[in-house]
Every structure is written in structure tokens, then in C-alpha cells.
Design brief:
Bound molecules: biotin
Distance between the termini: 34 Å
Order of helices and strands: HEHEEHEEEEHHHEEEEE
Radius of gyration: 18 Å
Number of strands: 12
Strand content: 25-35%
């Protein structure tokens, strides 16, 4: 498959000039994981964002330590943002906000109506188009959020994933540019990061609920660590936590993931 592997390189060089809030932007053809590689670029001044993009990852990582297949042609990056005064619980809410912002960029740039599988799987139809991994770290005694975003754009999907995953190229029937999507994603995540400490999750609640609308009122299975619970999906609360009605009563899930959806 012919892919313009270098299209992300020139844009990375000019991103910092065009976005004063971005302190460092690095492009690599191959890394183990942008989530690892970024740590060496986190700066003493945590007021600016740090970006690492890779064309391919040899050890891309997904949520719960799962491998994330990252061949050339996808959009794989980690955006490092200062955690500032955010609490760990707020970081969890922000990961849901990030998913919302990703769906907004996919709508704006690629005209795709995506949904969210809580907390932050990006779904098109009933297949996974992308995912978000939000981890935290400390550097120079400052806490950082590392927002790893993976979107299947033009990359091939391994045969064992084609039933459950899709790509923008498969949806549109031809290869798509990645630079506009990258810039839109960076701007929308940054804007949410600026707003979120002032507003909290409240202003995003309705928009997130509308993106999980197809599963509202339906039974879902949710994994929380080693436990799984079932319940009818009621919505998200003003902190981004999942609200379920289970056989034993209402449940609020602060951390976990939906693993089963109704067919
Ligand atoms: C998931 O849905 O499990 C989250 C996937 C996150 C993948 C991205 S790709 C860029 C960044 N680097 C990684 O190794 N993982 C994240």
C-alpha cells in the first residue's frame, strides 16, 4: 500500500510556530510507544504542551496494558499537558471529555458521526475507529497527563481486528489526509484543557450523553478492575462517571470500561 509517510513530518516542524501553547513537537518514523517516548521531552516549564507523533509504533499500548497495533498510515500521538491542580478523579473525567473532543474533530474534518463507548473508545457504526489512553507521570516534580490518541486513518487493520475495528479509509473508500485531523484534534483537546479546570465536566455532560444515546436504556456489561457488573445504562453524571441501573439498584462507575454492548 502506498502511503505518504512523510506528510506529518513537515507539519510537526511548523506546529510550535503556529500554536504558541505548544512548547515541543516531535515526529518520529518509528518509536516503541509515543506514550513512553514523550517523557524525555517533558519540560521544566509545564505551562506549554508537548507533542510526540509517530508514523509507526512497535509497542503501541492500549488501555489496561493491551497491545495497540500501530502500522504506518494511522494517526498515533501523545499530547503531554500539565495536570495543574486537577485531581486524579478529574483526570478520569477529562479522559471522557477528550473522547468527546475527538468525535468533534472527526465530524469537523472527516464528516464522521462517531459515538463513544464509555469512557473513551471512538466508535463508528459498531466498530472501533480509535481509542484514547490517558496516563499520568511526574517530571521535574510536576505532574503531567499523557493523552495518547490512536485513530485508524489509512493504516491496514490486522485480519483478527476487521470484525471489530474500522478505519477512515475503509469508511470513505479512499486514503485521507491526516494533517487537518491532527491540527483539529490538538486544538480541540487543548481548548478543553483550558476550559475544564474552570467548568468541570458539567458543560460536556449532555454532549457525551448524546454520543452514547444508542446504548442509553440498554443493558451493558462493565468491567471495573477484576470485577464485572451488568446493568441498564442510564447516563453519565456531572463528573463523567457512568450511571447504571443494576438488579441490586443504581450504580455509579467512576473507573472502568464498557465491555459488552447489546447487539
Ligand atoms: C485504547 O483504546 O485501548 C487506547 C489506545 C491508545 C493508542 C494510542 S496510539 C498513541 C499512544 N501511544 C500508545 O502506545 N498508545 C496511545
Amino acid at each position: 500500500m502506498a502511503i505518504a509517510v512523510s506528510e506529518l513530518m513537515p507539519i510537526t516542524d511548523r506546529l510550535c510556530g503556529e500554536h504558541p501553547w505548544l512548547g515541543v513537537a516531535k515526529y518520529f518514523f518509528k518509536v516503541d510507544s509515543t506514550q513512553n517516548r514523550i517523557t524525555q521531552w517533558l519540560t521544566k516549564e509545564a505551562d506549554k504542551a508537548v507533542l510526540v507523533i509517530a508514523e509507526t509504533q512497535s509497542k503501541g499500548v492500549g488501555r489496561h496494558g493491551r497491545p495497540w497495533t500501530s502500522p504506518a498510515g494511522g494517526l498515533w500521538f501523545t499530547l503531554g499537558l500539565s495536570m495543574g491542580q486537577l485531581t486524579p478523579a478529574q483526570v478520569g473525567s477529562f479522559s471522557v471529555v477528550t473522547a468527546l473532543q475527538v468525535t468533534r474533530s472527526l465530524k469537523e474534518v472527516n464528516n464522521l458521526e462517531c459515538s463513544i463507548k464509555w469512557p473513551n473508545d471512538i466508535i463508528y457504526g459498531d466498530k472501533k475507529l480509535g481509542g484514547i489512553l490517558l496516563t499520568t507521570t511526574a517530571k521535574f516534580k510536576k505532574p503531567w497527563m499523557l493523552i495518547g490518541v490512536g485513530i485508524n486513518v489509512n493504516n491496514e487493520l490486522p485480519s483478527d481486528l476487521t470484525d471489530i475495528a474500522t478505519s477512515i479509509k475503509l469508511i470513505r473508500g479512499q486514503s485521507q489526509g491526516r494533517t487537518r485531523l491532527l491540527e483539529s484534534l490538538l486544538n480541540s483537546i487543548w481548548q478543553a484543557w483550558v476550559d475544564f479546570p474552570k467548568t468541570g465536566f458539567g458543560p460536556y455532560q449532555k454532549a457525551v450523553e448524546s454520543l452514547i444515546a444508542s446504548t442509553l436504556g440498554k443493558p451493558v456489561q462493565v468491567r471495573m478492575g477484576n470485577r464485572q457488573i451488568q446493568g441498564v445504562l442510564v447516563g453519565v453524571d456531572p463528573h463523567g462517571s457512568l450511571l447504571l441501573q443494576s438488579d441490586s439498584g443504581p450504580k455509579t462507575v467512576h473507573a472502568g470500561e464498557i465491555v459488552g454492548l447489546p447487539s
